[in-house]
Amino acid sequence: MRASDAERERIAERLRDAVAEGRLDMEEFEERLDATYKARTHGELVPLVSDLPLTGAPTVAPVAAGSGRWADRIGGPATSKGAFAFWGGFSRKGTWTVPRLFTSFTMMGGGELDLREARFEDRETVIRCFAIMGGVHIVVPPDLNVEVNGIGFMGGFGEEGDGESEPDPTAPRVRITGFALMGGVGVERKLRKAEKQRLKAERAAERERLEQGGESGRLKKGDGGGRKELG
User: Fold this and answer.
1) pLDDT < 70 positions in the chain
2) Where are the alpha helices (DSSP H) in 39-190?
3) Whole-angstrom distance, CA of residue 56 vs CA of residue 42
4) For a tag on the chain, would you pick the N or C end, based on fewer CB atoms within 10 A?
5) Kind and range of the H or E element at 35?
6) Which region, left, alpha or beta, applies to residue 68 given φ > 0 means left and ψ of -120 to 50 means alpha?
7) What are the two backbone dihedrals, phi and then psi, of residue 74, each rounded to the nearest 5 degrees?
8) Contact in structure between 104 and 128 (CB atoms under 8 Å)
9) How far apart are CA 195 and CA 212, in angstroms?
10) Cα(46)–Cα(185) distance, rounded to whole angstroms?
11) SS3 (DSSP) at 151
């Protein structure tokens, strides 16, 4: 079966965890990472992690609803079912559990809902936001399935992202709706700081590998030319 970009990224994530735990050295990590992004099928991906522990690791087999890396973040009782701010603000962040229906209200105030590390009571979630001369800022991970369809009057609903990845079909589905009057509700797709740093380190290692490969090729070409001249 053909492998998707999301599946290749999950294998890369598992390799990054392995090198961080000391199970792989940098040379072997770079070789496997390069093979991961070149892989076209599941059969090419499986051997790259077959000797690594399965604990906490995502699968490369066809995924069903509720499986994959999101599996342990779905289920459990909600820790907060709503939020209210009047001339003030509210915040929900960290490992809180989002209910099936969450309602927020702001009037001349503001609120923040950060879902990047949150758990979800169910796979289907509705977040209702009512903002009157105020606003709500919602931060979600890039691979979360999000639908925004609120109504704005002299205000609005908006969504923006960092373009790092596509929504994961195994992730919960969150529908954000409501009404904004002279206020707004903004949805931002954003990686966690730790994930950004890890991606940056990975890209730096990949650039270094390519540069070393190019330099090695130039040296070999130069050596060949020297031998020809001496002959």
Assistant:
1) 54-69, 161-165, 193-199, 213-231
2) 42-49
3) 19
4) C
5) helix 26-38
6) left
7) -120, 125
8) yes
9) 26
10) 42
11) strand
Strand, coil or helix: 176: strand
Q: Is 196 left (phi over 0), alpha (psi -120 to 50) or beta?
A: alpha
Which residue has 């529908």 as its token pair?
A: 175
Rounded to 5 degrees, φ, ψ at 49 are -130, 10
Bridging pattern class, strands 145-148 and 119-120: unpaired
- DSSP annotation of 41 reads B
- In this structure, the number of other CB atoms found within 10 A of the CB of residue 84 comes to 14
The answer to whether the beta carbons of residues 141 and 191 sit under 8 Å apart is: yes
User: Per the structure block, which two tokens stand in for 56?
Assistant: 């906490």
Tokens of 231: 């002959």
* Amino acid residing at 163: G
Whether 93 and 114 have beta carbons less than 8 Å apart is answered as yes
138, containing H or E segment: strand 135-140
Residue indicated by tokens 């931060």: 139
Look over the chain and give the mean of its residue pLDDT values, rounded to a whole number: 80
Return the structure tokens found at 85.
């701010």
Taken in order 28, 30, 33, 37, the sign of the CA dihedral is negative
Q: Which two tokens stand for residue 89?
A: 């603000």
Q: What's the confidence (pLDDT) of residue 223?
A: 56
CB 119 within 8 A of CB 98: yes
Helix (H) or strand (E) holding 72: none
Report whether 138 contacts 98 (CB < 8 A). Answer: no
